Amino acid sequence: MRVPKEKIVGAFVGFVKRFRVPLVLIAVLLAGYWLGGLGEAPAEHDHDETGAKADAGPEIWTCSMHPQVRLPKPGLCPICNMSLILLAEEDAGHGGMRQLTVSEAAKELMDIEVAPVERKFVDAVVRMVGKVDYDETNLAYITAWIPGRLDRLYVDYTGVPVNKGDHMVYLYSPELIGAQEELLQASQAVKSISRSESDIMRRITEATAKAAREKLRLWGLNPEQIAEIEKTGRVTDHMTIYAPTSGIVIHKNALEGMYVETGTKIYTIADLSEVWVKLDAYESDLEWLRYGQDVEFTTVSYPGRLFKGTISFIDPILNDRTRTVKIRVNVKNPDGKLKPSMFVKAVVRSQVAKGGRIMDARLVGKWICPMHPEIIKENSGKCDICQMPLVTTESLGYVSNGAALVGKPLVIPVTAALVTGTRAIVYVQVPDAEKPTFEGREIALGPRAGDYYLVRRGLKEGELVVVKGQFKIDSSLQIMAKPSMMTPEGAGGAAERDVELPALSKYQIEAVLAKAEAVKEAVDSEDIPEIRAAFAEFDQAIESVDMKLLIGHPHMLWMEYRMRLGNDAVEGAEAKTLKDAKAAAKSLTENVSSMKARFGLVRRPSDDPKSSISDDFRIQLAKVFEGYFKVQQALSDDNVQLAAGSAKETLSSLKTVDMNLLAGRNHDTWMAAAAELDRILTESSDNGDIKSFRESFHLLSQQIAKVAKHFGSTSQGPFYILNCPMAFDNTGADWLQDNEETRNPYFGQVMLQCGGVKEVIGIKEIWE
Question: What order of strands is seen across the sheet that includes strand 148-153?
């Protein structure tokens, strides 16, 4: 069987890239192959090549030196002018490992439906049940203020309505006689002393009379009764107790003829013009309930009538048996229709904004009393009822701006999510695919609001998610041993292939691992703000990884871990409790361990020689690197005179480095390197020929690279070792830069951007 030319060319290109075959030898081999093929008879199936190529999808051509270049047809690399090569089919896709491609017919059979990911305000409807109860703040008690006998109870049974001031009890008490006698004597003394010239005696006598009146008042006699005693001069052994407020007598605690002590409760009166409704809310619905929200409810007694109230209290204690929380609602009841112990069915409708916050137009930018939700004001101040300072509605979980200024939440239909706890698997339709293609995503899920879930991370507005048929897609991925809801890690196959990262990508992922270590330390501290900050920085490190540097399987694998680690980051950054933070950290640790194994990342031992290098030495060494970078920049600009001058400057900086700042292996390494650097820089500083200067620079770069690898970067950022495979007749050469933008010192302006990052060197502890 004849091997297709495309496969031979692909294998040949791979061989050339790996072993850096000289251009002359490449030309000879290609000529021999094509000349030898002229006399071959075409295979029987050659006539199908055009159709097969059409079915294979669009071609993608890339540069072997600059894989970020991706063009639809052959040609030259726009960066280094090298010929583009055809990207292999397995490397052409930038999709993830969770993709499934089916035919149009298969899609119809699977009955797949999709819906867009949207940003819009959604309503969370919370349904609760409960019952009417007395307003505890409107209860009044009639008690005996002095010991005695109940000779008459004017209210004989409960349920009787009374008004404020109605007589309730006729009480006999011998102690009344003594108190009244004291008052009469004091009053007589005041009249007698008024004719006395002694002002002091008069004030004392008046004070005694006043105290006698106050004693009777405190025993329950009203001012009219006290005045009548003083006017008539007659004492009585009975007193009448009046109703202190209007309401309904709900309890009768005594009988006529009973002897009572001070404080004995006789009646309980409830004002039913305002009542409480106590509701049971499930813990899953607490996200949408706020102090001050409007509540609508109905009762069996009055079908069709809608009552309204305001949430005035949310119990801070959860009932662990029923998993519910008590919600108290203040309700006006002027007509007395609502009776205590009536069952009610209530509904709260919350309009949800971005971040799960609640919108309420009547509370936007207002101030509210934390004790009386009916007290709402435009500005700060005190409550008219209890004099407590008002608080902003924003502090209670409401948005501070109107709908026009508040961000809409990102939502998906409930049917799109295959929920796995705080996360979910959704399947997204890949846009612009020739055939129906669906990609699995693990997303960080927010709370449910009606028929929608809020999305915390993992989707973008406008993407199409599968709302019907996702289980069929998931089962197909399981059969193909790809990651799915039931098998998140997949079952081998492409997921287990060894992966080699480009140098720059490896360095960027090393930074992600370093931030993961910082998260672990923050969790150990058990400081919630510190933990959330560490997770937020970890998330930033994930986003800083340049995905354009990765192609093929490494790109797909990183996309998988970027998705998982990003979900860990958002859950940790929004953790409200230490338990939530530890759960996110545990998931992060598992994903990091898996990623390190897949990418072959192992931590460098802690006895790295760089750890013992003094700061003074680094400052002096930095001058040497600065001079070297000036030489490199001058050669990339084809300026040999500037390069020679920079070499002299570098030599001067080299002589100022104090080797006594080092000891042991560090001292020996620097002594050997410094001697070579001195020799090369001395020869280069008087060299006016750019070709020979570049040859010396090649030697200089080799020594500088050794120094950088041993002592690390001396700047805030990393050093980059770049390689040009075409330098010096395709033998290749390295050089250092303090940035990743290629500026080739060996070809200068002829091929300024020929080359790429080979290795990255940092100043801090790294991973390798």
Answer: 238-242, 167-172, 148-153, 259-260
Residue 11 is encoded by which pair of tokens?
């294998």
Report if pTM > 0.85. no
Asked if the structure places residue 101 within a domain, the reply is no
**How far is the C-alpha of 205 from the C-alpha of 209, rounded, in Å?**
6
Predicted confidence at residue 523, as pLDDT, reads 93
Q: Are residues 489 and 542 in the same domain?
A: no
Position 603 pLDDT exceeds 60: no
- In the chain, the number of structural domains is 5
Q: Are 156 and 445 in contact (CB under 8 A)?
A: no
Q: Are residues 476 and 512 in the same domain?
A: no
Q: Please count the CA atoms within 13 angstroms of the CA of 376 that sit on its side-chain side.
A: 16
Rounded average pLDDT over 742-753: 92
Shared domain for 465 and 535, answered yes or no, is no
Residue ranges of alpha helices (H) inside 480-551 are 503-525, 528-543
What is the DSSP pairing of strand 148-153 with strand 259-260? antiparallel
| Residues 485 and 444 occupy one common structural domain | yes
Amino acid at 742: T
- Kindly report, residue by residue over 48-86, the tens digit of the pLDDT: 444 444 444 567 777 766 666 778 888 888 887 888 776
For 346: left if phi > 0, alpha if psi spans -120 to 50, otherwise beta; the answer is beta
Residue 12 sits in the same domain as residue 75: no
pLDDT of residue 87: 58
User: Domain of 73?
Assistant: 58-92
> Based on the domain organization, do 628 and 733 belong to the same domain?
yes
Listed residue (401, 415, 413) closest to 355, CA to CA: 401
Q: From the CB of residue 150, how many other CB atoms can be counted at a distance below 10 Å?
A: 20
Do 489 and 538 have their domain in common?
A: no
> How much of the chain exceeds pLDDT 70, in percent?
86
Inside any domain, residue 177: no
- Residue-wise pLDDT tens digits, 441-455: 999 998 899 899 999
Closest by Cα among 146, 204, 153, 203 to 180: 146
Domain annotation covers residue 426? yes
User: Tokens 């924003």, residue?
Assistant: 394
Q: Could you read off the pLDDT of 620-665 as tens digits, one per residue?
A: 999 999 999 999 999 999 999 999 999 999 999 999 999 888 888 8
Q: Are 508 and 544 in contact (CB under 8 A)?
A: yes
